[in-house]
Amino acid sequence: MDIRSLRYFVKVIQHNGFSRAAEQLFVTQPAISRSIKKLEDELGYTLLIRENEGVRLTDEGRILLVHAKQILAQFNSMEQALKEKSGPLTGVLPIGLPPVIASTYFADIIMAFSLRYPLVELKIRELGTRKMCDAMLNGEVETAAVMLPFDDDRFDLHIFSTDRLMLLVNEQHPLAKRGQVKFVELVKEPFIFFSDDFLINELVISACGIYGYKPIISGRSSHLDLVTAMVKAGVGISLLPESMWRTTSAEGLSIIPVIEPILAYDLALATLKNQQQSRRAQAWHDLAVEMLKERAP
To answer: Mean of the per-residue pLDDT values for the chain?
Structure first.
């Protein structure tokens, strides 16, 4: 088994056909066919089946695809690290950040990194935790910040802060003037949720479950501005991190602490274990750790 065969295999799946993969790779279709046939012979399994519409993975092919993407990501990282062993930092650094807290914790870090390493292009991807995990495993994101729990032993985690969710209501809501709110008072309220892969949703669902309720969901969005706009419009209530209100305007809204339970969680920097990081990613990680430590109370 060689890297080229794995690369051909992944391309065929991504482009749903041998001819389209050949065009992308600038090689002949027979060369790709021979390479994948050799791969199948070495492994002893049929990996994909040709169909009129393209190709279809077998069960064994699906297993190989997951591992092939990880192997290729590690190989590309190794190649890049060798090329970048010395000299100024250049190139593109894909960073994953949770959308809800990205600007709160990382705006100044992004600015400081860009000033220190002006030849590096930061490619920020705002993803929920589950999608972040997949993006890192597939090599689409090299280093990230995540909300815990992030129960996956394939990652190294560096906890940098603890945050909590606060109730967000419009100024006309009956709870708007309260100093604090017990969660049981919210279980019959309509909620504005984020997209499915956000851990904030799971915290709210779990808290509702304590009292034997399922949350009533009146809206969803992956965009913070739209979530707050729906709350202002009275579509529902939402729960958002306390930290974000240090820098975000709350005009027309009331921000209220929630108790019983307090919905707290940790935030961490995440990198893949046993994978050589690029100098860019290591420089980002070191700077983030330094600046987040200075900010900690």
So the answer is: 89
Q: Report how far residue 9's alpha carbon sits from residue 33's, in angstroms, rounded to the nearest whole number.
A: 9
Query: Could you tell me which residues are beta bridge partners of residue 192?
Result: 219
Higher-confidence position of 168 and 82: 168
Q: SS3 letters for the chain?
A: CCHHHHHHHHHHHHCCCHHHHHHHHCCCHHHHHHHHHHHHHHHCCCCEEEECCEEEECHHHHHHHHHHHHHHHHHHHHHHHHHCCCCCCCEEEEEEECCCCHHHHHHHHHHHHHHHCCCEEEEEEECCHHHHHHHHHCCCCCEEEEECCCCCCCEEEEEEEEEEEEEEEECCCCCCCCCCEEHHHHCCCEEEECCCCCHHHHHHHHHHHHCCCCCEEEEECCCHHHHHHHHHCCCCEEEEEHHHHHCCCCCCEEEEEEECCCCEEEEEEEEECCCCCCHHHHHHHHHHHHHHHHHCC
Q: How many CB atoms lie within 10 A of CB 40?
A: 19
For residue 1, is pLDDT > 80? Answer: no
What does the pLDDT average to over 192-207? 87
146 closest CA partner among 131, 129, 124, 167? 129
Q: What is the pLDDT of residues 231-255, one digit of tens each?
A: 999 999 999 989 887 666 678 899 9
- How far, CA to CA in Å, does 185 sit from each of 53, 177, 244? 54, 14, 23
Q: Are 36 and 23 in contact (CB under 8 A)?
A: no
